[in-house]
Amino acid sequence: MSTTTTTVGLVGTPLDRVDGRLKVMGAATYPIDVTLPGLVYAVLVPSTITSGRIRHIAVDAAERAPGVLAVITHVNTPPLVRGPATEIGPQPLPPFQSDAVLHYGQHVAMVVAETREEANAAAALIDVTYQPDTPVLSFDDPRASRVSHPWTPDYKRGDVPSAVAADVRVTQTYTTADNTNNPIGLFATVAVWDGDALTVHDTTQYPHAVRDSLAAAFGLDPAGVRVLVPFVGGAFGAGLRVWPHVVLAALAARVTKRPVQLVLTRAQMFTSVGHRPNTIQQLSIGASRDGQLTAIEHVSTSSIGMSDELINLITHGTPSAYACPNVSTRATQIRQSIPTPGWMRAPGEAEGSFALESAMDELAHAVELDPIDLRVKNHAHVHPATGLSWSSNALLDCYRQGAERFGWSARTPKPRSMRKGGQLVGFGMARGALGAYQPPCKAIATIRRDGTAFVRSGATDIGPGPYTVMTMLAADCLGVPVERVRFGLGDSAMPRAPQEGGSGLTGALGHAVHATCVSLVRAFVDLVSDDEGSPLKGCRLEDITVRNGGIQITDDPARFETYTDILTRHGRDDLTIEGESAPPGETSSASMIVQAGRFIPYTAPSTGTRAHAGGYAAHFVEVHVDPDFGTVRVARVVSAIDGGRILNPKTARSQIIGGIAMGIGMALLEETVSDRTGRLVTTSLAEYVIAVNADVRDVDVLFVGEPDSMTPLGTKGVGELAITGMAAAIANAVYHATGTRIRSLPISIEKVLGHESASPRTSSSLDAIPATTASARHGAV
Ligand code: MOS
User: Fold this and answer.
1) Judging by beta carbons within 10 Å of its beta carbon (0-12, 13-18, 19+), is residue 140 exposed, middle or buried?
2) Which is the closest atom of ligand 1 to the Cα of 237?
3) 501 lines ligand 1 (CB under 6 A)
4) Which one of 181, 187, 240, 437 would you pick to mutate in the ligand 1 pocket, going by the greatest count of ligand atoms within 8 A of its CB?
5) Is the CB of 347 under 6 A from ligand 1?
6) What burial letters (b/e) apply to 272-286, b meaning 16+ CB within 10 Å?
7) What's the maximum distance between 2 C-alpha atoms anywhere in the chain?
8) How confident is the model over 250-271, as pLDDT tens digits?
């Protein structure tokens, strides 16, 4: 066995992806790649109406078509029970339970056939007779019902109405468009039954939720359902819920007694796996003439499906964003006849930060302060509601270092004052932030007699890199060379892990892996405690260093023994320990900081002394706007990121670049469009435009900050952080370039050229002007 490899100190280094080779070789198996003997194919028939009822479905011709094994509709589907809610909210309703059509593209029938071609051909023979009614497609529709949910309670501190009537105020309406996740890999489910045991390969971010939902749907013991997804592909939030097609694939396999593959079409991806619902947001900011904030009021209205519940944290970040005594927020959802929304990277916080950070930019221009100076002046040095100090907060460093790297000092404050050739040049910036989130997580770790380690947990890797990062972390905690460590995920038979979502997985899984590995080392220490044959006899965790596949007494390098030696002498093939993460702010017996192979006890800050901070970002953007064509190019981005302790700067940087790319898409390009009957018109990548390489040019990421004090690893989520504030930074740069304030995303060419309203129709169109003048001209708002 090799003993020369450095086994400690991998965490924090830019290790290449451990699964990179498999991926580029095409050897990584995604759900769509799963082939099984006797595999048959299910295809879905989407509703062509937006709202109404199914009067009749003629299936005879389809049933008689070549290769067809089953045609399944609401008429012959048994009752299916809705899956249990997870920590991120309720599941969608199960499919085919009634004749009601609640949105365009709703699955109304499924054909299962020997080949996909036969299934598609038969699906075309299905004739659905609808009884349409008038869909609800506007927030102003008197039939549109408002939903309030416990997870978005109204927030209030201080006296907002009087404080908003300050010396200077900005009162504006901002809108964001419907956006749709477009992972290149189409979502796929392969289901196979063996008696009452169900195995499902599924494009999901949350195997245990799929297991629990399918168990509920079919009345099974969850232990009899296994969900596998070693590789997911992109998902961005689309795989966080257990969508109807997943249940339908399992139903198709049950009915036909064959393994079934169901792959959504690209068009179905727009209607079947959620989307970022559109928002209208009213932002009022009051400030003194020198730019000290006195009040923020943030009211959002967003759409939700006719029969669904969805957490959407649009105003969630606003109360803690700035040191401001008077703040109120309200988030309302309005039921519309739209495909069931879901989540898309930084759901809510991406949209909310667009409004807040655009309004802050408007305020900066109104009080003639540099946008950075305005933010620094109003920085929340402590949590503005509780007065508690932050567990970590390097936002001021983000502003400072980001500005320096970007060359912000070259900016001339006046809009439309910078040019390069024929292009208008604009510099814009914004603050980004994402709340802290660490759901519970378990893991299991094994060291085998051959000196290898196998650590696993039922998590997923949609690209951020848990395979890599957890391998490094386990190698460091166990002192086993990284090439002898394997990390496993994507299997509901492994210990329960949460979704990879909410930027919470590195913290959740990282702490589970960390705690489990510490417990495993402790188990080895216990094993040799009274072992006369061991040079380690009587050692304690605090005395040892793990390295080179074994344990050494720190002060006596001669007293070293490999895990293999210990297991061999005790006649064991392996030692296996299960463990789980401690919640942030709690100390457990496995709470340790592992440093250079040593175990240093970690004690959480005493209860109630710290506000648990999430990640922070400062984005700096240079845009070039063509005054004739209205095209906006994001020429440069510098994002300074406080992500706490960065476990792998290479994979973390990729996360930030990805967030920036999606932020560019959100700001300039992406818009899911439906016509006035509620049918989607953007159902392919030709019509729904996302940022491609040519749109993502010079991107520079710098990490600043310290490990967060609330947890032993000190990590903060970065997966979604970069998209927060990104659209505002671009909009602010466009204003600086052109003098045109665009408050409605996406910032299309038409809006830049003034051919389409740059402000939402519902806007008060009250520009940021001193309140004395504003009140006289417009009255109180
Ligand atoms: Mo993300 S929307 O939490 O996958």
Assistant:
1) exposed
2) 4
3) yes
4) 240
5) yes
6) bbbbbbbbbbbbbbb
7) 90
8) 999 999 999 999 999 999 999 9
* Ligand 1 nearest atom to the CA of residue 236, by list position: 4
* Ligand 1 centroid, distance to 43 Cα (angstroms): 27
Block residue for tokens 């789980």: 580
Tell me how far apart the alpha carbons of residues 386 and 384 are, in angstroms, rounded to a whole number.
Answer: 6
Assign 761 a pLDDT band (cuts: 50, 70, 90). Answer: low
> Which residues are paired to 101 by β-bridges?
52
Ligand 1 centroid to residue 205 C-alpha, Å:
9
Residue 310 CB less than 6 A away from ligand 1: no
- Distance CA(375)–CA(380), nearest Å, equals 9
Contacts of 364 (CB under 8 A, 6+ apart): 291, 370, 371, 373, 374
Cis peptide before 746 (omega within 30 of 0): yes
Distances (CA, A) of 184 to 227, 264, 576: 22, 12, 38
Residue 720 annotated in active site: yes
Cα of 504 from ligand 1 centre, angstroms = 9
111 CA from centroid of ligand 1 (Å)? 31
Contact present, 497 and 509 (Cβ < 8 Å) = yes
State which ligand 1 atom lies nearest to the alpha carbon of 502.
Answer: 3
Least confident residue range of 300-309, 524-533, 762-771: 762-771
**Atom of ligand 1 lying closest to residue 346 CA:** 2
237 in contact with ligand 1, CB cutoff 6 A: yes
Q: Which two tokens stand for residue 504?
A: 């919470």
Collapsing DSSP to helix, strand or coil, 86 comes out as strand
- Choose, from 349, 500, 671, 720, the residue flagged as catalytic: 720
CA 502 to ligand 1 center in whole angstroms: 5
Dump pLDDT digits (tens) for 162-177: 888 889 999 999 999 9
Task: Give the residue-averaged pLDDT of 52-71.
Answer: 98
Contacts of 407 (CB under 8 A, 6+ apart): none
Which residue puts its alpha carbon closest to atom 4 of ligand 1? 237
Check pLDDT > 80 for residue 763: no
Report the predicted TM-score, pTM, of the whole model to 2 decimal places: 0.95
The residue among 301, 263, 298, 304 whose CA lies nearest residue 284 is 298
Report CA(279)–ligand 1 centroid distance (Å). 18
What are the residue ranges of helices labelled H in 105-166? 116-123, 160-164
The verdict on the CB of residue 345 being under 6 Å from ligand 1 is yes
Dihedral of the alpha carbons of 616, 618, 624, 626, in degrees to the nearest 10: 60
Task: Quote the pLDDT of residue 756.
Answer: 81
> Edge-to-edge strands of the sheet including 68-73?
68-73, 107-113, 40-46, 260-263, 188-194, 197-202, 225-228
Give me the phi and psi of 635, to 5 degrees please: -75, -35
DSSP conformational letter for 382: B
Q: d(Cα 361, Cα 594) in Å, to the nearest integer?
A: 43
Is residue 653 lining ligand 1, measured as CB closer than 6 Å?
no
Report which ligand 1 atom has the smallest distance to the Cα of 239.
Answer: 4
Evaluate whether 520 touches 545 at the Cβ level (below 8 Å). no
Q: How many whole angstroms separate alpha carbon 39 and alpha carbon 24? A: 26
* 371 Cβ inside 6 Å of ligand 1: no
Please indicate whether residue 716, judged by its CB atom, sits closer than 6 Å to ligand 1. no
Determine which helix (DSSP H) or strand (DSSP E) holds 360, and give its type and residue range: helix 349-366
* Residues written for the chain: 781
Structure tokens, 320: 């803690």
Which tokens belong to 766? Answer: 């009250």
Q: Which ligand 1 atom sits nearest the alpha carbon of residue 205?
A: 4
Please report which confidence band the pLDDT of residue 536 belongs to, taking 50, 70 and 90 as the band edges: very high
Of 220, 175, 180, 183, nearest to 204 by C-alpha is 183
Average pLDDT over residues 416-437: 97
Question: Is omega for the bond preceding 92 within 30 degrees of 0, making it cis?
Answer: no
Q: Is the CB of 505 under 6 A from ligand 1?
A: no
Q: How far apart are CA 127 and CA 507, in angstroms?
A: 50
